[in-house]
## 1
Amino acid sequence: MTVFEELKRRGLIAQMTDEAEIAELINNGKATFYIGFDPTADSLHVGHFMALCLMKRLQMAGNKPIILIGGGTAMIGDPSGKTDMRKMMTKETIQHNVDCFKKQMSRFIDFSEDKAIVVNNGDWLLNLNYIDVLREVGACFSVNRMLTHECYKQRMERGLTFLEFNYMIMQSYDFYKLFQDYGCNMQFGGDDQWANMLGGTELIRRKLGKDAYAMTITLLLNSEGKKMGKTEKGAVWLDAEKTTPYEFYQYWRNVSDQDVIKCLKLLTFVPIEQIEEMERTLKGQQLNQAKELLAYSLTELVHGKEAADQAQDAAKAIFTSGSSSENMPTTAIPVADLQDGGMGILTLMVKAGLCASNGEARRLVQQGGVSVNNEKVTDPKAIITLDGETIIKKGKKVFHKVIVE
């Protein structure tokens, strides 16, 4: 089975510009490809997982990854409809985030001997002359054609800003620049980037008369069509300080029955034959075997074998007895926040990050979904005495330790 065949078999590929040529390049280790990352945080998160795993697979086959950090585009942001402008970041902040990214990526990507490189589009975008861009780049783009893309059609209904319109041109220029300077012949990205990626291949063709290729990868969505990688606390980060290995393990251990096989195919390096066998044979409670394999495989990939072993052991101990709290996620409550040594259950749930709001916590308590130290709490007005370790259980699977400092 070739690399390209495995990508298709795992369901990783969404759209391509030239299937035969792309297959030829990546199967023979001839692709120098790039994927863009937005450096607006100091850690990667689950949303980056697909790209990281794809880079690893392709590099293992002899292809060369270029990690493009959006130091220039990050200053305005990818126009997603939520915001048009972002807070300007200093070069020092961007460099710090880049360093954090590279450290995390090193678990996936081999940077030795120039086998992979990191570049920053701020190095060229921030120095461009506006008139030159209009003449040299803008003239290659048809407004009529841009408006046929779905990403612009959707925004036309609420109003399309000139800033949003320019994002395709900037991303296309990145591909053009990487093609010239680094021999980058291929771009990969999420399926929502398809229009911008096509813009890059077209700019290279029009300016240089040469071919470059684009392929999008499947978005990581759950069975309800929502992006995966979010919890009550927010994003699931790859940084152990932001999301502990235990919490990371638990996130994947708790995916739905409908999503576990898909996640194994898209995100892990478990042999596809083994996953397909599980897909054929595992039903009902047996799917927990697949969930444990998913959680362990990804935790080992991100945090190492020792952390994965600890997370798995802690999870099994908690599920069997509910008593082992050594590696349980923990929240420290300042003693000054207590009243007579206690705290209301709703406030406690929010402070522990188990609920986003008092309203959500109230509903959960009233529905019988909360226990404290193995005793169910059903009164939203209950005051919980905090002394030593307090173990909160949310639903059937989520355990959290609270201590007082």
## 2
Amino acid sequence: MAKAKLSLAVVATFAATVAIPVPGGKTADVEFTFKWMNRDDFKEFVENLAGAEDVDALMDILAGWDLDETFNKDQVEKLVQRYMGAARAILDKYIAEITGARAKN
């Protein structure tokens, strides 16, 4: 398998699938479109996470999703309210993707 060619012209967004915890010990895979950040912007984002509301933090990193509902702040609030582990799962995935961290097999 050929490796991807590195380019310094970074795209504004990237997609990644997040396993959202649902009641009953299962997960539902949802593809999100994330906003790309450079190192300085990411550092500032992480430093501000402690005082941020979940929805505001998610709106800082999300650009869209593959759900039937329209992507907007109100719908993100519904997601966070109905699936309590969603915010953590989304943030963890974003941090892993943006920093290049990968889970070991």
